[in-house]
Amino acid sequence: MPTVSTPSNPLLARLKPYPFERLRALNKAITPNPALRPISLGIGEPKHPAPQLVEDAIMASLKGLSVYPATAGEPALREAISAWIARRYGLQLDAATQVLPVNGSREALFALAQTVIDPTRPGATVVCPNPFYQIYEGAALLAGADTAFANSDPARNFAADWSQIDEATWARTQLLYVCSPGNPTGAVMPLDEWKTLFTLSDKYGFVIASDECYSEIYFRDEAPLSGLEAAVKLGRSDFRNLIAFTSLSKRSNVPGLRSGFVAGDAAILKNFLLYRTYHGSAMNPVVQAASIAAWNDEAHVIANREQYRAKFAQVTPLLQQEFRVELPDAGFYLWMEVPKHFQNGDDIAFAQALLAQYNVAVLPGSLLAREAHGINPGAGRIRLALVAETTECLEAAERMVAFARSLR
Questions:
Q1: What is the second-level CATH architecture of the domain 15-44+300-406?
Q2: Which of 295, 310, 313, 348 is the most buried (most CB within 10 A)?
């Protein structure tokens, strides 16, 4: 009998292994020091307790499991989100047309590309910062687009250097992902940078997807600027070609809730809702009730932010005894430089040696980036997720300092 091949989407072959999969493969032969308890600073998963008000809302709304939810979400949830936007940014959005709840920003970041990209146009391109959240690339490739990268510039507080994208590439661009505060660098985009990107969007017609899931964890007096806020400041109150993404995962320590929202251009959201209706992306009614409780309360967010501020205030100077690392603008990562005297700053080798000798897991920066413009901008750095309790993060930092001193 002839062999019949199993049908498969050929675009799946374009996907690259996720950073944690690559790291697991690289560490397969590594035996962590059994004399020390394992500490992981690798995965950006919040470990602070979920707020009690969210847990209470879940328990009080379990009867909601007996009904099908609407993809657009309950009006009460959309109103809660728009009210939060008004309090946080001073903006008045139409809850019915400019706000849409989503099952976490990850799902929405991926789905937006499937909504806005036209793969029949020659050279369809998605532009990303570099390093970047890997969902951006996967979304682009599975939408049939190519990718182009703007490397972060250490001399400019790790801001993406958008001038690296030439005019011919911008002309093919249909979607631009930005992340502010940035993962992994923690950089916040200022108004001038937004003005540049809006000007490019107007000229070439691409959509801007603004990933803002770290917006509520910050270390400066001034809260990070949102893309929506920047648009209004620059006279773009219709939010044309702009969609902002925000999540409860980091803000409220509920990554398992899978809840967030998108907001912005009503025309894009209309098409996005159509796509998600067929994709089956309606939010669980119990999750909606819990999300309303979370968006309506700011006290737990302030307490959470203070906990991160106190933690970073202790861990950062400890690491600075032996490493080049600075307090970021926002987010819960430290973007730390590997000492040059250790194998010429090899971030993968550093992470493997640290795991083997001190049982601390970190994420090599080169795995979060791609070779672009002649370099991998993540090489020579590691990302530290300070998500665990302060005592555990301090112990990890002490081990890292001891490791650095052993290399002298």
A1: Alpha-Beta Complex (3.90)
A2: 295
Task: Report yes or no: 406 and 340 within 8 Å, Cβ to Cβ.
Answer: no
Closest by CA position to 177, among listed 229, 130, 120, 122? 130
C-alpha span between 78 and 82 (Å, rounded): 6
Q: What is the mean pLDDT of residues 225-241?
A: 97
Domains 15-44+300-406 and 53-297 share a fold: no
Structure tokens at 341: 């005297």
**Per-residue pLDDT tens over the stretch 82-117:** 999 999 999 999 999 999 999 999 999 999 999 999
Q: Where are the domains of the chain?
A: 15-44+300-406, 53-297
Give the orientation angle of helix 285-295 with respect to helix 75-89, to 10 degrees: 20
Rounded to an integer, what distance in angstroms lies between the CA atom of residue 261 and that of residue 108? 8
| pLDDT per residue as tens digits for the range 261-294 | 999 999 999 999 999 999 888 999 999 999 999 9
Cis peptide bond prior to 131, omega within 30° of 0: yes
Query: With contact defined as beta carbons under 8 Å apart, do 161 and 153 qualify?
Result: yes
Kindly report which listed range (6-20, 28-42, 350-364) carries the lowest average pLDDT score.
6-20
Domain 53-297, CATH among 3.40.640.10, 3.30.930.10, 2.40.170.20, 3.90.1100.10: 3.40.640.10
Within a 10 A sphere around the Cβ of 4, how many other Cβ atoms? 6
User: Does residue 305 contact residue 218 with C-beta atoms inside 8 Å?
Assistant: yes
Cβ atoms < 10 Å from Cβ of 212:
25
Alpha-carbon span 378 to 58, nearest angstrom: 40
Write the CA distances from 149 to 125, 136, 286, 364, integer angstroms: 10, 11, 39, 19
**pTM greater than 0.90 (yes/no):** yes
Instruction: Report the candidate in 286, 312, 284, 295 with the shortest Cα–Cα distance to residue 394.
Output: 312
Is residue 320 helix, strand or coil?
coil
